[in-house]
Give the backbone structure.
Amino acid sequence: MKKIGKTNIVKSIKITLAFCVFLSVFYILILWLFAKAAGPNGGNAEVVTLDGKVVGAANVGQQFSRDIYFWGRPSAVDYNGAGSGGSNKGTTNPEYLAEVEVRIDTFLVKHPYLQRSEVPAEMVTASGSGLDPHISPAGAAVQVRRVAEARGLSVESVQALVEEYTEKPLLGLFGTPTVNVLKLNIALDERTR
C-alpha cells in the first residue's frame, strides 16, 4: 500500500513538472508562432510615425490636451503604458462621481457649443485599462468643431477626416465603429503643415 502511494506521488510530481514545462514554454511558443503567422504586423505592435520618427503605438492611448488635437478617453493611470488599470471606483462612489463632474465641466469649457447632456460618457469616464486608444465616432464628432476652429480648417474637412479614420467592425459584424485618436491626430498634423 505504501509503495502504491509513493508511486502515485512520484507520478503526480512528474506530470506536474511536465505540464509546467509545456505550459510555460511550448504553449507560449505556439502562441508566438500563431501571432507571427496570423497576427497583424507579424505579431508586433503597430507603431505610428511622423516625419520618419515613431511617435507612439497605435494600440496604446496617449494624452492629448491641446485644442488642435482630438482627445481620447481619460486615463486612471495617466496613460502610463508600463501598467494599465482602472480606478476601481464604483459608479456610485462619491469620489468617482466628483471626478466625472470635474471632467464634464472641463470638457464643456472647451466645447461651449455642447449641452451637458450631449457630452459622451466615454469622454469623461476612464476605460478599464486606462490606455484605450480609441473613441467612438460620436466621441470624435463632438470635438470636430473645436479642432476645426483651433486649426483654422472647415468643419466639413475635419469631419471628412474623422470619417476616413473611422475603423469599421470586423467583417461588418463584430464590434463597433471606432476612431484611433493617435492615427487621427497624426493625419491632422500631416495635412495641415
Summary: The radius of gyration is 23 Å.
